[in-house]
Amino acid sequence: MIRIFVGGAVLLLAAGAQAQLYSCKGDDGRIRFVSARAQCAGDIINNYSPAKTKKTKAAKAAKSGKKRGPGKFAKISPQKQRTLDKARGDVLLYELESEKKIKTLLDKLIGKTPPEETRRLAVLHKRRKEHALNITAIRQELARLGGYASYSGN
User: Fold this and answer.
1) How far apart are CA 75 and CA 71, in angstroms?
2) For 139, what's the count of Cα atoms within 13 Å in the CB-facing half-sphere?
3) Neighbouring C-beta atoms of residue 24, cutoff 10 Å
4) How far is CA 42 from the centre of its chain?
5) Burial class for 49, CB neighbours closer than 10 Å (0-12, 13-18, 19+)
6) pLDDT digits (tens, 9 = 90+) for 19-31
7) What is the mean predicted confidence (pLDDT) over 125-131?
């Protein structure tokens, strides 16, 4: 998550950093790259302007009024979809069992932790709540898949 945020920030900064760029030959014969024409003491060799951005297919479609939608997705057979759903359901069942085990362990730890350790108890309760939410989300996903209705309850 942090990588995505940092990457996005770098891209935003890079987009705002575009500027006019000149290459010119200095008095000593070396080529220099400068951002202002006034900084060139000698002749200007090239004037580099910011690159034009290419429009994406989505931007072109939006401008032309064409809609992109479900009709553009790849189609698979119902049998292939059932196979994929079964594999997804198996993974979700494994995740559900893992979350239940972790929640049970946290319940035991909370029971064994003395009440004086309020900081530790707060952390344990927070983690237990996160795992309880995960269990709820996994059960909902299993119910949406169908064929896993028995897992929608406790």
Assistant:
1) 9
2) 14
3) 19
4) 49
5) exposed
6) 566 677 777 777 7
7) 94
| Torsion, Cα of 18, 23, 28, 29 (10° steps) | 150
Q: Is 47 helix (H, G, I), strand (E, B) or coil?
A: strand
Q: How many other CB atoms sit within 10 Å of the CB of residue 106? A: 20
Is pTM beyond 0.85? Reply is: no
Choose the most confident range, by mean pLDDT, from 8-12, 37-41, 85-89. 85-89
Q: Tokens 């299993």 appear where?
A: 142
Yes or no: say if 143 and 151 are a contact pair by the CB < 8 Å rule: yes
Instruction: Count the neighbouring beta carbons within 10 Å of the beta carbon of residue 67.
Output: 9
Give yes or no for a contact between 20 and 35, defined as CB atoms under 8 angstroms apart. yes
CB 31 within 8 A of CB 17: no
The stretch 60-80 carries a mean pLDDT of: 69
If you search the block for the tokens 């196979």, which residue do you land on? 83
pLDDT for 152 equals 47
Q: How far is CA 80 from CA 130, 146, 149, in A?
A: 34, 15, 21
Backbone φ, ψ for residue 48 (5° rounding): -95, 120
Name the nearest CA neighbour of 110 among 129, 85, 82, 135. 129
